[in-house]
Amino acid sequence: MNINLTMLADFYELTMANGYFENGLVDKIAYFDMYFRKIPDGGGFAIMAGVKQLIDYLKKLHFSKEDIEFLESKNIFSEGFLKYLENFKFVCDVWAIEEGTPIFPNEPLVVVRGPVIQAQFIETMILLTINHQSLIATKANRIVRAADGRAIMEFGSRRAQGYDGAIYGARAAFIGGCTGTACTICEKEFGIPALGTMAHSWIQLFPDEYSAFCAFAGIYPDDCVLLIDTYNVINSGLPNAIRVHKDILLPTGKRLKGVRIDSGDITYLSKKVRKMLDDNNMQDCKIIASNSLDEYIIRDTIIQGAKIDTFGVGERLITSRSEPVFGGVYKLVAVESGNQIVPKIKLSENVSKITTPAFKNVYRLFTKEGNAIADVLTLHDEVIDDQKPYTIFNPEHVWKKKRLESFVAKPLLKKIFEKGKCVYTSPDIYDIQKHCKEQIDTLWDEVKRFENPHEYYVDLSKPLWDIRENLLSSF
Fold it and tell me: Which residues of the chain have pLDDT under 70?
């Protein structure tokens, strides 16, 4: 979307930037990590999304004449600082975990290195972009996994929080495994299939249900899906759909593609509908269900024997209604002094808010068979040699150790900007979705449980742990 979002920033980012400028810190190099603390819905993992939109934002980062005039009108920014913004050029290095990758709490998802004014200023957009899409991709994948191979269509545009929530939520939902979206613009912008049939208003507009179905079938004979719950699914909607199949479609060599149920007890109704369709030699006619669905309702309908082929999921997906905040944070972790990188730590009485200092990398360790064992946070220039034994340990309970003899180590952070220039090409959305499925398949089933999942290990390397402990003990 061709919008300049440079001024979409928390105001304190500008007041601090002005302060840095006035204190001679324009060229002070700082390191920031974006990470999250808790997996939504008590799940075992989340999914990284939003990197493409972050790249688009950083590429367009500039202050327009109108931006400068607005800031000048506040009468709190120095003339020198405003001149700096007028000639602003993004020069940071940025690393990110690739979209579609399973992610876990307290590991860097995005790392920024650069002049502190710039690295601080982009905080808000990094957070809102990665937080939102990672939240929706994570929710969508839970729903997709609950459907156990049945297709999930994202139907939530009209319930999203604003048009960007609808558009980028649909994109994230596709990454998470949805087959398509009701949001038409997403096919134009991203190539995500736009899907849909009719609303109840179509049927109400005609003299009767049968006439409405006939009119629709006449226009869309190759892709005819009829909504059968406007009046009565079993006594009206389905019999009329079967009549249209026999009277209108079969004589032209076409077949009814599907029927949709949008209300009532979809488990009970789907069983009745399936039997009536099969009794009329319509075994190929699919049953689609919608109406305030989520992963738990879908899972229960399947357990109860529902005969549903495809689910349309709206508001509970596009808003992640059960837990609508991802909770990612953006924290300073190091600064440069001369040729040295000086780690920084934030302390808190709330232990979960203590940061992990230093310029870092993230490794994922796999078995030789391809199963993910653990993630290890290391110093950025540290290398895990998977040709030698390696010991991982719990950073809070260090006596909990595991020695790995045969494993594969893969770094997760990819460089996306170097000195302000994009050096990364975002994959096609279908490749991201494929990557997501493949990487989730590397996780143990115990990590993928909806309730009480196994806690995936996110450990610190010994050098990084030493730095953290030394800083903690110095206060």
Answer: 1
